[in-house]
Amino acid sequence: MAYDEALADRIQGILAGQPGLEAKKMFGGVGYMVQGNMACGVHKDMLIVRVGPDAYEQSMAYPHTRPFDMTGRAMKGWVMVEPDGFTHLADLEQWVRAGLDFALTLPPK
Description:
This protein has 109 residues and is of the alpha+beta class. The protein has three helices and six strands, in the order αββββαββα. Helix content is 28%, strand content 28%.
């Protein structure tokens, strides 16, 4: 399955104007990098969000989330959000903002 391009367009709209933003094709989808650090992305129809280790447990408590695991080993500080978790623009904006906020705490690459 190709990635959800409509979701990618929605994310791109939220991040429009963000300094240092780059969209990169990766893992069969697209990742959104800010100053060289990934903030969020799309894999198939799922939203991937890099929330960081401190916000991980809290993020996993939200409905429609699961660990980000593409290799059999979950990545710490990353969550996958199923489509039901971001049907409303406000929900998608909240997730994208969480990824952006964390990425901006990291040193530029």
